[in-house]
Amino acid sequence: MISPATFTRRDPRHALRPGSCFVDFPGPLSDTEDASAPMTHISVAGLAFQTAVLPGLEAGSIVEGVTVRVGDCRIEGDIVVQYVDPTKTPGAEIGCVFHPAGDGNADRLMALIAGIEAARAGV
User: Dihedral of CA 4/28/64/57: which sign?
Assistant: First the structure.
């Protein structure tokens, strides 16, 4: 397991309000969980999500065809797992690098991050 503390972030990581943002997967995470997980953090480079069970993902796992969902905004792309932190109960927090699928999705991600940063700055 790679710990969140073993790599350096170059971009700010933004904590998300519980239940406000989700990552949707192309299939169920496990026999007991559906294909959606609440996101806990987002940055220009990646995201983290919470799962109630350990879905068999480990550092280096690639999941293609995920959708980041924030309100009406949808951003499609792929994730590469960077860490699995099983100390975040229940289940685990899974941190990933997010690769937007094409320029339109990359533009939506940048606009989403800019909106979060503006809201936090009170702009």
Answer: positive
CATH superfamily label, 13-121:
predicted glycosyltransferase like domains (2.40.10.220)
Q: Which residue has the tokens 């799962």?
A: 51
**Which residue(s) pair with 38 in the sheet?**
22
Separation CA 34–CA 76 (nearest Å): 18
**CB under 8 Å to 8, separation ≥6 — which residues?**
none
DSSP 28: -
HSE (side-chain half, CA atoms, 13 Å) at 64: 0
Give Rg (Cα) of the chain: 14
Q: What residues have CB less than 8 Å from 94, skipping those under 6 apart?
A: 37, 48, 49, 50, 51, 57, 81, 83, 84, 85
Q: What is the per-residue pLDDT across 36-70, written as a single tens digit (0 to 9) for each?
A: 899 999 998 899 999 887 678 889 999 999 999 99
Residue spans of the chain under pLDDT 70: 1-11, 29-34, 54, 88-89, 123
Neighbouring CB atoms inside 10 A of 59's CB total 16
